[in-house]
């Protein structure tokens, strides 16, 4: 989808005034791109119709830069189809808030249960996970593992808790939550590989039994053309209040999101972006629109980068390097900035062609910064500014003071010297090329 749209927009950007035929051919390209991305035909027609009407209107012909205006319109319409504003989770007036998860097997429900629980816990809530997938042999164990990772309680069927009957387990789970004052209940359910009447009835029965505040339909963003049929089947069979898109860390660029939202009218609440419990975020329609337009989720990126790097700081360091006055304090400052960019790996993942860089960052060790901090903080001001004065007895003192070994201190000094040398090269002759990374 994205490569094609990008080409289309490139053509547009190169032009000044737009003719009606420019607009028509652009709309045709958008239509083809969306269809190729498995967006449902009705949705595509509706979408391109709106874009065309607006593009032919005054807002484009009177615009300073008509091409940019068309891009803007496409973006706005995408955001609007994806749900406009972001919707939040409904909370029950009287706790616990009950969230039920439904979807095909492998969609990511159990993983999502853990992610939601962790996220809610981080906001001070006390979720209870309830294991109602009694179909797959390992499902209950899997949920218990996820609960433990998230640091939350789990309610699993044991003799007396209603073995074999997911509806009973759901009811008992909610009762347990009330008794133990959990303010959230997350009900994990069974799925099948394909839509099937028995599974659907089971989910519907669970829904009737516990009357959830939210029923979240969990769907793999990579599912392609089946997205619409699956979503419709679940809407008819169980009905749901919201959608969670999973596996957005893969190649899928959002075609499914577009169709599901448009066909079911239900909002997308969350996006799941990996196997780890932290790989999860509230869904941002505007960001998904950018992703579909292949802007590399630039908003998220800019936000994260702004949080991570202080421009002034970077300029000061560059000046120091040029003057050959780079100290261990500067070195430490740089490492700390790297840490602030805790999400830097994610950030890289959002940019096309950054695989190599991401690999390197995978090896970035958080503890190393803590150790580096300890060592540098055990040095005197003079030592930090002039590491050449670090003789054997000074290194021994620093090692003792920081609780590290002399070898650790030696290695740090060595790494600092390498970094200083490398940066001097950079300051003199421009950036060294990192493989897989274009010019920044
Ligand atoms: P369920 O059958 O719906 O409960 O699905 P699971 O939670 O067991 O997930 C199925 C598989 O998909 C597991 O291997 C998960 O680790 C994986 N998975 C779940 N969510 C994501 C995601 O957002 N991204 C990726 N890459 N994998 C995911
Ligand atoms: Mg499961």
Write up what this structure looks like.
The structure is a single chain. The protein is an alpha/beta fold and 440 residues long. The protein has three domains: 2-81, Up-down Bundle (Four Helix Bundle (Hemerythrin (Met), subunit A)); 97-295, P-loop containing nucleotide triphosphate hydrolases (Rossmann fold); 304-429, Signal recognition particle, SRP54 subunit, M-domain (434 Repressor (Amino-terminal Domain)). The protein is 57% helix and 9% strand. It has an eight-stranded mixed beta sheet with strand order 3-2-4-1-5-6-7-8, sandwiched between helices. Helix 3 packs antiparallel against helix 5, helix 6 packs parallel to helix 7 (139-150) and helix 10 packs parallel to helix 11 (255-264). The two termini are 24 Å apart. Mean pLDDT is 80; it is low at 295-309, 350-358 and 429-440. Guanosine-5'-diphosphate binds at residues 103, 105-111, 191, 246-247, 249, 272-275, 279.
Q: Are there runs of 5+ residues with pLDDT below 50, and where? A: 295-309, 350-358, 429-440
**Ends distance:** 24 Å
The CATH superfamily label of the largest domain reads P-loop containing nucleotide triphosphate hydrolases
Average pLDDT, rounded to a whole number, is: 80
Q: At the third CATH level, what is the topology name of the largest domain?
A: Rossmann fold
Work out the radius of gyration: 27 Å
Order of helices and strands: HHHHHEHEHEHEHEHEHEEHHHHHHHHHH
- Let me know the largest β-sheet: 8 strands, mixed
Q: Which compounds are bound in this model?
A: guanosine-5'-diphosphate, magnesium ion
Can you tell me the CATH class of the largest domain? Alpha Beta
